[in-house]
Specification:
Structural class: mainly alpha
Shape: globular
Number of strands: 0
Largest sheet: none
Number of helices: 3
Radius of gyration: 13 Å
Helix content: 40-55%
């Protein structure tokens, strides 16, 4: 999904990129896969185009430091 976000960003599909990054943040609240790197590129691209901030900075979930995985 991170690769897809990068490809969509490189293709100029910033809205799609933002949606993918939101989903990555939901699935990976501790940012283990590095979605913040693509997010920084998205913000930079938005700044370069004069669009302002395309998406808000990623904030860790309040429970991310205490989150436990329970597979049932």
């Amino acid at each position: 999904m991170k690769a897809l976000a990068f490809i969509s960003l490189r293709s100029g599909r910033t809205a799609e990129t933002a949606c993918l990054l939101e989903r990555i943040a939901e699935l990976d609240p501790l940012n283990s896969v590095g979605g913040d790197v693509i997010e920084a590129l998205l913000r930079s691209a938005a700044d370069d185009r004069g669009l302002g901030q395309a998406s808000p900075p990623r904030q860790p979930s309040p429970t991310s430091s205490t989150a436990t995985r329970n597979d049932g």
